Fold:
Amino acid sequence: MGCMPARAAEELLLQLDGLALPIDLVALESWTRQPEQASSELTAWLNLLEPQSRRDLIRLLQAPLVRDRSFGLQLLNSWTGEQMLKQAGSLLTTGADNRSTKPLLLSSLRRLLEMQSSVSTLELLRALPVVSVTLSLDESLQLASQWRSQLQWQNTALERLRQLPLPGRSSRPLGFTSAVPRHPQRLQLQVPHRVTTLQLELWPTQQARRGPWLLLMPGLGGSSDQLSWLAAALADRGWPVLVVADPGSDELAIQASLLGDAPPPGAETLPKRLADLHAVLEAQREGQLPAFGPAPAGEQGVVLGGHSLGGLAALMGAGLVPERGLGRRCELALASLPLTNLSRLLQCQLPGITGDGQASAGILQPQATPLLGVVAFNGFGSLLWPHHGLQDLNVPVLLVGGSLDLVTPPVQEQLAVFAGSTHPNSRLVLVEGASHFSPVRIENQGEALFRLGEQLIGIEPLKVQALLLNLTSEFLQGFEQPLSLSPQRREQNGVWAYVLDRNQARRWQKLVAGY
Structure:
């Protein structure tokens, strides 16, 4: 095998069933530091990998696994941390009976975090109270292969999308119509399900436009300020906007987890988000909120919207509930960590929170504010609605995704859900080069909790946001005049977006499925 090409050797290893590789942890550390000079049985096996795979493995072992002591300790107590350790414990075993290393990983990581602020994967392995561990090599290589295949699949999906016969169109960024900077009205609302008052930001309009008003919700760890660019611009065009931030999953909750005061927030915050939504709609219906603008601004009804987890809350608030069998689907989905679809970790928290999926009425009741539509930026729900998708919603939905999104990848999380749509005015938008964080704007970069690399940010966010504003405005105009947002290939300031109706989305899905 020493003369076998690296790629061929790696493919052979993938074909072997149940191959386990004993790993001398001292030898692993030596190979990581000097891969060309290290000499051991382990080195012989690792050198069968192709050069790029070897470099990726070394980079993975040396990279910080946990960067902050307090955050790491809280992560260990969270559901997400439980899943990560469970998966690692299945890949690495110890003893003659191949016991899971999960308990050892947990105790060793806790011990390291008591002594140092950050921990790398290699440091964690060396801290295990054993001389060697056994790596399930076939599962590890399959996980790496799945990662590469998923990325290749997403690239192929984009190529297939470009082949759709869509009419081309160019547009220019929309400017603000008011010369005076806009500022929201900050409101407080007493709600029975919270100890503290709910904080709201109202962006009223100066136009007497006969259109809907919008209720927007930020994503996990987001704040209302991050969606202010969109709220201000839409209000400037005649659509009042009310932004609701969840105190349990906003940026302050993330800060608390970083300081070690609370576990990282997740899908467990969704029930209270839905309760917030219901309380705000009830308060608006009963006249407890200030006027949205000159009559009849916002009197036509409401459009629910949000980013990421906020988009999921909008879809569920509009009436979608998880289909039965969610628990079993999650067992299959989490057989290996979803490296290219992190939203599955959030979706698979829900069986323990909302149950295994059941039919029930939506949050909006007939006597409440009329629901006109839903706008979800980087929304998700492939495990929640795998069969029907948006079929049970009788209002138009705008789903927006980015081709570089590895948190809620568009083919799995937007296309798969949208393909079930039955409303003729629903639209799926994919922005080429946009990421999961493209709709988010942080005016003061000093306030950012995390520094994201270019691969996570995607192309210039301000350019993407200018395009999203145009597309969202045209979607909202559809409630006043038909087919304002028609299927098209849109170019604006060098950014391309593909707007699909239900028929074109299903055609794209067939092209992707044939790959």
Q: What stands out?
A: The chain has 20 helices and 17 strands. Residues 1-18, 445-455 have pLDDT under 50 and may be disordered. The chain has two domains: 6-146, 163-321+337-445+455-513. Residues 265 and 358 are 24 Å apart (CA to CA).
